[in-house]
TrEMBL record:
Its cofactor is Zn(2+). This is Riboflavin biosynthesis protein RibD. Pathway: Cofactor biosynthesis; riboflavin biosynthesis; 5-amino-6-(D-ribitylamino)uracil from GTP: step 3/4; Cofactor biosynthesis; riboflavin biosynthesis; 5-amino-6-(D-ribitylamino)uracil from GTP: step 2/4. It catalyses: 2,5-diamino-6-hydroxy-4-(5-phosphoribosylamino)-pyrimidine + H2O + H(+) = 5-amino-6-(5-phospho-D-ribosylamino)uracil + NH4(+); 5-amino-6-(5-phospho-D-ribitylamino)uracil + NADP(+) = 5-amino-6-(5-phospho-D-ribosylamino)uracil + NADPH + H(+). Converts 2,5-diamino-6-(ribosylamino)-4(3h)-pyrimidinone 5'-phosphate into 5-amino-6-(ribosylamino)-2,4(1h,3h)-pyrimidinedione 5'-phosphate. In the C-terminal section; belongs to the HTP reductase family. In the N-terminal section; belongs to the cytidine and deoxycytidylate deaminase family. It comes from Zooshikella ganghwensis. Substrate binds at S168, R184, L204, R207, E302.
């Protein structure tokens, strides 16, 4: 029971890095001696001290005979910092408790082996599911599957995302929109379509004045990825004013970009990447392969109904976050899912992960159900 209590504290510490550790995982560490916490710490930023070192640096007490609780297997390789398993191995600890092994191929059990060889009792798997959820994007990327891709939508009771005219400001209330800022702050990048840029002229960044519970120095602006098949991004788009605080990548179709506009955007600091196209625009399956080459752990898709529907149709989203407002938009509104389904057996089905009232709206998180396996 005490193991879960102390690991829960380590996970709470790790969650303080939700906004800042990328591309590294979120990790917390607690040292316990005679039933009391004597040191604790968490990893804040890539290149900074890892959780174990942060905790060690925080105390002047002797760690001899202590138990270390770590949310992720201590690293065993030289990166920006020395291996943490070697640091722990030099301490006269009694025990090391680890929530989960590190899926990074450079670690993947090696850190645990070093600790066992040092003579420590090593226990793995305490609150493992909570640890997995905390680093689901990092875990997916380490397994060569690319970032955790999730969509965020605001809809009416009847499923509308916009009126026929394209008007969508605002469907949800202030508190829901403030909550969206926390999702953006947790994301490594935001992905949208050029239609959204032209229609709404958004900033699509994190507004620090909307984050009441997050330490402002911990927040980094997510990169922005714009799908723009024919490179029609306006040169005076408001989001281009955020180039001083983040990277902006515009993805265009092969052979379809205006060279002059491309040069203009490049001179402003925008990265323009060319990918193959499908009948719908930039090929989303190829886009997914490109995302695997990045160091993004989580990417948030924040777009209009057409692009969001395409991501859903191609089964590319790991999660869908829906903010539903108590309004009816009526006939002719632009619906979330624009794919015609002729049979209920063919309908896309999801699992509700959690649901919460935020102001006058409801936020629900869904994950897509796995496709049933065909029987031989």
């Amino acid at each position: 029971m005490n193991d879960e209590v102390f690991m829960s504290r380590a996970l709470a510490l790790a969650s303080q890095g939700l906004w800042s550790t990328s591309p590294n995982p979120r990790v917390g560490c607690v040292f316990v001696k005679q039933g009391k916490v004597i040191a604790e710490g968490f990893h804040q930023r890539a290149g900074g001290p890892h959780a174990e070192v942060a905790a060690i640096n925080q105390t002047k007490d002797s760690l001899t005979g202590a138990t270390a609780y770590v949310t992720l297997e201590p690293c065993s390789h030289f990166g920006r910092t020395p291996p943490c398993c070697q640091t722990l191995a030099k301490l006269n600890l009694e025990r090391v408790v680890v929530a989960m092994t590190d899926p990074n191929p450079l670690v993947s059990g090696r850190g645990l082996s070093v600790l066992k060889q040092a003579g420590f009792q090593v226990d793995v798997g305490i609150l493992e599911e909570e640890a997995l959820q905390l680093n689901r994007g990092y875990i997916k990327r380490m397994k060569q599957q690319g970032p955790w891709l999730f969509g965020k939508v605001a809809i009416s009771i009847d499923g509308g995302m916009a009126l026929a005219s394209g008007e969508s400001k605002w469907i949800t209330g202030d508190k829901a929109r403030q909550d969206v800022m926390t999702l953006r702050a947790q994301s490594c990048a935001i992905l949208t379509g050029v239609k959204t840029v032209i229609q709404d002229n958004p900033l699509l960044n994190v507004r620090l004045d909307h984050l009441d519970k997050i330490p402002k120095p911990m927040v980094r602006q997510p990169d922005l990825i714009i799908l723009d098949t024919r490179l029609s991004l306006p040169l005076d788009a408001r989001l281009l004013t955020t180039l001083d605080s983040r990277n902006i990548v515009v993805i265009v179709g092969e052979g379809l970009a205006d060279k002059k506009r491309q040069q203009q955007l490049s001179s402003m600091g925008v990265e323009v990447i060319t990918l193959p196209v499908s009948t719908e625009g930039v090929d989303l399956n190829v886009l997914q392969q490109w995302l695997k080459t990045t160091e993004y752990n989580e990417v948030m898709v924040e777009s209009g109904p057409t692009l969001m529907s395409q991501f859903l149709q191609h089964h590319l989203l790991d999660e869908l976050v829906v903010y539903q407002a108590p309004m009816l938009m009526g006939k002719g509104s632009q619906m979330l899912y624009q794919v015609q389904t002729t049979k209920l057996t063919e309908a896309a089905r999801f699992t509700l992960i959690d649901s919460q009232v935020i102001g006058d709206d409801i936020r629900s998180r869904y994950q897509r159900k796995a496709e049933p396996e065909l029987q031989p």
